User: Fold this.
Amino acid sequence: MSSDRLTPVQLARQAERGRRFRQPAPYLRLACLVLAALVPLVVPSFQVLDLAAKIAIFAALVASYDVVLGYTGIVSFGHAMFFGFGAYAVALSLGKFGAPTYAHLAAGFLAGVALSATIAVLIGAFSLRVKAIFFAMITLAFAEFALILAVQLTHITGGEDGLSPKLPGIFAVSYEGGRLLGIPVTGRLVTYYFILAICLALFLVMARFIHSPLGRTLQAIRDNELRAEALGFRTFVFQIASSSFGSVVATVLGGCYVMWVRYANPESVLGIHVMLDLLLMVIIGGIGTLYGGIIGATFLLTAQTLLPHLRTVAASVFAGSMIMQRMTERWLLYFGILFILMVFFFPKGVIGTVRDALARRAPSPVSSPPHPASPLRGEEKR
Amino acid sequence: MRRAAPILATAALFLLPLAFMDARTYVTLTVAGLAMGMLIFLVAAGLTLIFGLMDVLNFAHGALFSWGAYVGFSVALLLNQRWGWAAAPSVPLNVLLLAASILAAMVVAVGLGILLERVIVRPVYGRHMFQILITLGATIVIEELIRMIWGPNDQVMPVPLTFQGSWDVADVIVLRFPVVAIVLGVLVYLGITLLLTRTRVGLIVRAGVENGEMIQVLGHNIYRYFTRVFAAGSALAALGGVMWAMFSQSVRPAMGGEQLIFAFIVVIIGGLGSVTGSLLGALIVGLSYNYVAFLVPKAAIGINMAIMVLILLLRPTGLFGAGK
Assistant:
């Protein structure tokens, strides 16, 4: 087929494929993966391993949120709720039905995914019918409702204390698998690589999702809903598909999170703080970049790990000053200010800003823009 | 008739619980439910007006509610410690304390609201996702400021003696403060309605809800009205905050966030942009919560969600929604 027979979309894709390995992005992503894989081999500290696992989980979680927020343009406050569903499903399945087996683990993941998919479709069907802005309010209400349920249904969820399931077989803390390359193979290590593999797989699935025809339709809806509708797409159905997909990914990650930390309580997996963290991470990394989550999660989780140390330092420096002590205690305040400043001045986050700078320096050879338009562009007011 | 239908249907529905309880319990629960509804209405009214006129979904509304509650708390505490106005068995002093708390809270909230509108909201008009994110960021900051200034723990709100306890009307126990809240809510509703329908400012605001661009074309600076409505909405939130603090006799930094979720449910039920819809929605939420909490305590948390989902299924734009 000669190139003049190709459609503009096919041309743009061809150009994209041609550029793929000449840009730094794929190599940086590979470097991140290798780095994460090397952590347990290089640094024997559990604290660092813990941080690395959480970064992997949250990076993927932020990416799944980005699919909904950045690639579809709908604001959901229920993403942490779906994360919590996964966490509770796996924790319940492992903890409530006798000695844990692999079957229990798989059943937990499946049950969580099924529940999340159902609820995501239902919420979407109620709220996206009228207006995407309803979605933000209704997901917030549902998330609060889920939190209250988890706290109140003590006989199932363990209330405020939550659940602390034990893991089966090679994931158990007590598992000893001899030594490999001079490193003792423990349950922790197996779990770490298992989680890393799942996160990698999810990233690949999500990248495939956003570059599929479906994903491109979603971006069209984000950029101009009216026009997408006029082109004959039932935007409502596409939006539901996107939010359900993001929710299911979040659910799987919730299960992974429980496998790693081995407990699930309302505060740690369902609370509004999880949602705030997610929003901060996605803003820092960059909305509509997918991989921004890696930067956002790394920054925020590292900061949160280091902050307690910082606070003890501050407490000794400003000893006796009540207001100074309170100011250092309220680190969320500074994250809030950072959040506002980011939204105002760097709405595309770290990755988006860097991409823009690169694009300005080396103008792209094809006419199509080298990166998707910012999702925060003004929507046309009706 | 079309406008009256939801009101009549609601009224009929709320006589239903009479079949399951005796009349005295029903009256007590109804008073509590109406009071709760009126307090939620105070929050929802500002939210719905701001959305209707400016097309801004203000997530920081709950934080302004908390600020109002804390400022009112400080004033009440000060007046009570200095002169014992709350503990004094004197009706004028007690009313004065309530009025002073409300006034201080509203003044602070108006200032905060204007600041918020000018600095945070104005640069992002017309961009929904931006607005939601930025007002959420503002919520974090405002709420954390409360924790920094007043400390992170619950505190006990001094309640004036006159408003404590209950009246015994023909063997029916009627708590005093809820009655005050209901009266205040009715006054606020009448005030807003009169302002919107009988004054020039109200006319412009209502026209702005219908079509903001046309208002600008006709030569009115709509941004000035945006600021005013935002400030008024903030003042209403603060009023709601003080009243809620006295109603629940405590203040907490997170109280605004919890009320905001109720207010969202109410605004969705009533229809975005409609003050009457908000009142009706708030009363539905307040009453059904109290009835269900008495009849089936376990189901109380779910009832509001169920009502919201039901109404969205029947009327996707809410009871009085214009489909905006």
Summary: The domain at 43-361 of chain A is CATH 1.10.3470 (ABC transporter involved in vitamin B12 uptake, BtuC). Confidence is low (pLDDT under 50) at residues 366-382 of chain A.
